[in-house]
Amino acid sequence: MVLQAMGRILVGLCQVGAWGCFDEFNRLEERMLSAVSQQIQTIQEAVRAGGDMKVDLVGKTLSVNSNMAIFITMNPGYSGRSNLPDNLKQVSSLECLYMLL
């Protein structure tokens, strides 16, 4: 269910060229995290190709609007969180923000 919902959101972002931010991404179950990461990797490859590449997401074949972007946030310090899959680490730019109280 979560994978289908995430897939539909990703399809929408790809079609209209919107930006999406997924907060606490690493709270997904590990198997879901891996599957969604694979979808994100596929989308990113299409964006790098200038949107000329067709992708298959949740049973739909579509072109990716090259204006789209995906951002994720995660908090690895809390228990019960999953590690970011290696395939997503390799294709993403990781930025850290520390809040000092």
From TrEMBL:
Coiled coil: none annotated. InterPro entries: AAA_6, DHC, P-loop_NTPase. GO terms for biological process: microtubule-based movement. One of its GO terms (molecular function) is dynein light intermediate chain binding. GO terms for cellular component: axonemal dynein complex. Belongs to the dynein heavy chain family. This is Dynein heavy chain hydrolytic ATP-binding dynein motor region domain-containing protein. It comes from Parascaris equorum.
